[in-house]
Design goal:
The complex is a heterodimer of chains A (386) and B (317). By secondary structure, chain A is α/β, with parallel strands linked by helices. Chain A is built from 13 helices and 16 strands. Helix content of chain A is 39%, strand content 18%. In chain A, strand 14, helix 12 and strand 15 form a beta-alpha-beta unit. The radius of gyration of chain A is 21 Å and the shape is globular. Classes of the chains: A alpha/beta (386), B alpha/beta (317). Chains A and B meet through strand 3, helix 3 and strand 9 of A and strand 1, strand 2, helix 4 and helix 6 of B.
Chain lengths: 386, 317
């Protein structure tokens, strides 16, 4: 197939078309809506056999998807911001029911004040819900992660739902050049859905979603911990298999010029690309900077990050969300990794880009420069007007 | 009246077993068993959170002999709809060949209140499933709090009868009529004391080819304050007083059934509401002389709604 000029939402819809899930239930919300609009076109034109359910709320969207997947159907959905917040009650139920459904999340600020632009307030508020979480830097990755996700989530050792995150507008709406895979290649890679004890197998009746007392609740949560641990080798194998069909290599933690770096930034999503440009500028000035992205945010790649960050002079944690009164959400997680390092780097937290505040290459350069010059505080608010 | 016999019903497979943990005298399992008897086709059941859900499925036990699923409280209809959506998808792709049926159970809190939006959305989308409300007229699982289904004057833990306020000060919303206003193929009110009427209506609901809604009055000995052996007597009294008329809405036509039909036709006399109040501790404060005006007021409202229902049942268009 020839290269496409396509936005991130449409790229995800294209991946879904090639996978042809059994059920998709969704509710419109900016900036996700293009995914379900494009997918509706595929349904209307008979390009997919999917039962597309236009529900009356995101709470019902995730509910329909959860019971549909427990019933035995491969099921996808998409949401953003308030939609994810409205789904929140269902998020830990979906994962505890071990339902491997796939949800694209167009990352957008959480109200209030109401704001439709990109930050990670939505997904970070969902980080403790037992979902696998993948992040993408660009449109190509948005497409690739949409194809990769079902293989990870549906693996018998994993059986957990998966969010594929893309930055609202920056990736959802911006048109980039992308290399799609052939339909047959995607179909073969993703394979048939093999549901675990589906409800529709009425000859072998099962009950899903039972009540746990204190004797079982903790144990069931612990089984999810084990599933997350088992997901690590599964993810590595799926990335390896994907490289064979696409030539594109992915890792739990993506690194850029980290090997000999003195200071490394940790960042999620599209800002990884912008920070690579900042690193190049700094390197040209003789500053030994590097940047990395945990492509897989859940399971949290602690060991892999430790290998990248151990012995560095300083680590900068970039957070597009903040826990008001504490830190950005990723800062304590990275700090926990650093504590175990042989040579513990100094760690700094930069809150940036909230509500879509634009951050340019020069601003990212200043972050590294301020840290090296001893001007950075523990928690810093990049570009905020006081 | 059909040829349906108790002997026949008794020979049908048991889909919800005994040994669950519902209270003695609870009508919910009686209703559920009658509902599940109403179809011979393979069925998947689902429940919203509530008494029925927690009592029939405490891990590692389940009282269900048919597939069953629960997710949360405010989304019973969406939970059922998801199973039905999967069924339609897999049937279209040829992965399922048998015809199946789908039923969702929810209490009145889960149906009238928190799950109302999900129910309205599900029936608007036309899922082929039947939603059954166990209407015990309050939040019983959390300890008898008032709901949108609680009767006027009923004392609950959040609408207690006090020295100034005499129980709930609002009438229940008429959910069966609201569902009928969605113009779904089938909606009905039932009571477990009349098993024949209930099973016939649920049979119609299962076969109506679209969404069906069954509102089942479910006497609750704890919440309504009556002896646990009296549930079916109380249920019958609700129908005899026209507090809970039995009727159906089928393809746009309202029809009174069973005892309600006989009352409307003048074969049986309608009992006064005071008898309904006398039978239950939740209404005992209404029996004092000071509250006689409340009884009168409720009687007037019951009479008005009864006249309206009779008018609707005669409506030809």
């Amino acid at each position: 197939m020839s290269d496409l000029a396509i936005n991130g939402d449409s790229a995800i819809a294209l991946a879904w078309k090639q996978i042809d899930p059994d059920v998709c239930a969704a509710y419109p919300i900016t900036p996700q809506t293009i995914i379900v609009e494009r997918f509706s076109d595929y349904v209307a034109d008979g390009d997919v056999g999917t039962n597309f359910v236009c529900v009356e709320s995101e709470h019902s969207a995730l509910t329909v998807c959860t019971s549909s997947c427990s019933a035995g159907a491969r099921t996808f959905t998409a949401t953003s911001s308030q939609g994810l917040a409205y789904m929140w009650e269902m998020l830990p139920i979906t994962s505890a029911m071990r339902v491997p459904l796939i949800m694209a999340v167009a990352n957008r600020a959480i109200s209030g004040p109401i704001n439709i632009n990109n930050d990670h307030g939505d997904v970070m508020s969902a980080r403790d819900c037992g979902w696998l979480q993948l992040f993408s830097e660009n449109v190509q990755e948005a497409y690739d992660m949409a194809i990769i996700a079902p293989r990870i989530a549906e693996h018998p050792d994993v059986q957990l739902p998966c969010m594929t995150n893309i930055d609202g507008f920056i990736l959802t709406h911006a048109i980039e050049r992308m290399k799609p895979l052939a339909d047959s290649v995607v179909k073969e890679f993703v394979g048939e859905f093999k549901p675990f004890k589906p409800l529709l197998d009425y000859k072998n009746p099962v009950s899903h979603g039972l009540m746990d007392g204190p004797d079982f609740y903790f144990e069931h949560k612990y089984q999810m911990v084990q599933a997350m641990q088992k997901a690590v080798p599964v993810i590595e194998k799926v990335f390896e298999d994907f490289a064979k069909i696409s030539g594109r290599e992915y890792h739990m933690v993506e690194e850029y010029r980290c090997d000999d770096a003195e200071v490394v930034a940790v960042v999620l999503g599209s800002a990884f690309g912008t920070m690579k440009a900042a690193v190049d500028e700094l390197r040209a000035k003789g500053v030994k900077a590097g940047v990395c992205m945990p492509r897989v945010f859940r399971p949290w790649p602690a060991d892999k990050l430790a290998k990248v960050l151990d012995g560095k002079k300083a680590v900068i944690v970039m957070d597009k969300h903040l826990s008001i009164g504490a830190y950005g959400p990723m800062y304590p997680e990275v700090s926990s990794v650093l504590i175990g390092c042989k040579k513990v780097p100094k760690a700094y937290n930069y809150i940036y880009g909230l509500g879509g505040k634009d951050v340019k290459v020069a601003a990212y350069e200043s972050v590294f420069e301020d840290v090296l010059a001893g001007k950075a505080k523990t928690v810093n608010y990049l570009g905020v007007k006081e | 009246m059909s040829n349906l016999s108790l002997k026949d019903l008794n020979s049908r497979p048991v889909k919800l077993t005994s040994g669950h943990r519902l209270c003695a005298g609870c009508a919910e399992s009686i209703i559920a068993r009658q509902v599940l008897m109403s179809t011979d086709k393979p069925i998947v059941a689902s429940s919203a959170t509530g008494c029925f859900e927690v009592s029939t499925t405490i891990f590692p036990y389940s009282a269900w002999n048919v597939p069953w699923v629960h997710t949360a409280f405010g989304n019973g209809a969406a939970t059922g709809a998801g199973v039905e959506a999967a069924y339609q998808a897999l049937r279209k792709k040829g992965k399922i060949t048998e015809e199946m049926r789908f039923v969702t159970f929810g209490g009145d809190g889960a149906t009238y209140d928190i799950g109302f939006q999900a129910l309205s959305g599900a029936v608007e989308r036309g899922h082929q499933m039947m939603y059954v409300c166990f209407n015990n007229e309050a939040y019983m699982n959390t300890g008898i709090q008032r709901s949108g289904a609680t009767g006027f004057g009923a004392s609950t833990t959040t609408s207690p009868a006090g020295s100034v306020v005499q129980g709930k000060t609002e009438y229940p919303k008429d959910l069966t009529m609201i569902l009928a206003a969605h113009d779904i193929p089938y909606a009905a009110q039932v009571s477990p004391h009349n098993w024949r009427d209930l099973v016939e209506k649920c049979g119609k609901g299962f076969e109506c080819g679209g969404p069906a809604f069954i509102n089942a009055l479910s006497p609750c000995p704890r919440g309504w304050r009556f002896a646990s052996e009296d549930g079916m007597v109380i249920a019958k009294l609700a129908v005899e007083t026209c507090v809970w008329p039995l009727y159906e809405f089928e393809n746009g036509k309202f029809r009174l059934t069973a005892e309600s039909k006989r009352i409307a036709e003048g074969h049986v006399e309608k009992k006064p509401v005071i008898e309904w109040f006398k039978a239950q501790g939740r209404y005992k404060h209404l029996l004092s002389e000071d509250n006689a005006h409340i009884v009168e007021q409720v009687q007037a409202e019951i009479d008005r709604k009864w006249r309206k229902l009779i008018a609707l049942s005669k409506l030809e268009y």
